[in-house]
């Protein structure tokens, strides 16, 4: 299904581009929107900034139409396209059925519609490649989830994310794993290594291992994910530090992380050599 997260980001970006094309400030637009809408307290520069930044959960179609009036967008088909985008952005994503098990749903909302995902992981196996047992160990290991029912829900939610591999146009997924992530897999979780070998045999999935003995590398500061989408949506870089999420969208930021990924991928073992290293690690357990 369509991701309301991606639609929300698209609507915010398009509205921001309309304003920037006119060269107007947020304050000027808010003042004009206030006059046109007849709502003295309905508009402010901060409201417009939140709308343009995607910092909202629901948007009023009338507000979108008011902004289109301000920006001089009069073509009926263009206006209807904006309203339809707002309508889709207001829908509930599939992740809502899992409560707060997937956080705000922003990441999985983008993940669910990505055409390509590239990830570097320094300490653990990426969520889309995890077995239920490994996911349970990772989630319970942070010490924040003690309730068994909540733990089960979080594991189920993580497994549900794998639908990106079975949709009509499966995502192309490439992972570079630091060898440290493999070394942290205990004998009790050895099925995770077998699962990596199985997943890596699929044509749309690539797995490379970056050996520890290669020394310092371009991504020493931590893991990151690069998600690309069908046009017209631009790529997004996702960073996670403890419980904080950060999304980068500026062209220069995207380019920087794409270069970092290229460097890390070049330092990693080939796909075939990586498979052999995973087999060796499995045999050692």
TrEMBL record:
An annotated Gene Ontology molecular function: DNA binding
Domain DUF5753 as annotated: residue spans: 106-279
Protein name: Transcriptional regulator with XRE-family HTH domain
């Amino acid at each position: 299904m369509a991701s309301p997260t991606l639609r929300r980001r698209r609507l915010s970006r398009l509205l921001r581009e309309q304003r920037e094309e006119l060269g107007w400030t947020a304050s000027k637009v808010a003042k004009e929107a206030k006059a046109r809408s007849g709502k003295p307290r309905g508009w402010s520069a901060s409201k417009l900034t939140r709308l343009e930044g995607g910092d909202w959960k629901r948007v009023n179609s009338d507000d979108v139409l008011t902004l289109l009036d301000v920006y001089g967008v009069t073509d009926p088909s263009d206006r209807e396209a904006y309203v339809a985008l707002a309508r889709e952005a207001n829908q509930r994503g599939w992740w809502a059925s899992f409560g707060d098990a997937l956080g705000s749903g922003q990441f999985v909302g983008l993940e669910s519609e990505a055409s390509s995902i590239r990830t570097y992981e320094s300490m653990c196996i990426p969520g889309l490649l995890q077995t239920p047992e490994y996911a349970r160990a990772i989630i319970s290991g942070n010490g924040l989830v003690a309730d068994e029912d909540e733990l089960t829900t979080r594991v189920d939610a993580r497994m549900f994310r794998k639908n990106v591999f079975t949709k009509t146009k499966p995502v192309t997924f490439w992972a570079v794993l630091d060898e440290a992530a493999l070394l942290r897999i205990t004998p009790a979780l050895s099925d995770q290594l077998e699962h990596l070998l199985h997943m890596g045999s699929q044509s749309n999935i690539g797995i490379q291992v970056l050996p520890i003995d290669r020394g310092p590398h371009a991504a020493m500061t931590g893991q990151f994910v690069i998600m690309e989408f069908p046009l017209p949506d631009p790529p997004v870089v996702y960073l996670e530090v403890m419980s904080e999420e950060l999304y980068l969208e500026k062209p220069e930021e995207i380019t920087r992380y794409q270069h970092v990924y290229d460097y890390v991928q070049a330092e990693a073992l080939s796909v075939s050599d990586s498979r052999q290293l995973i087999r060796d690690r499995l045999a050692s357990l």
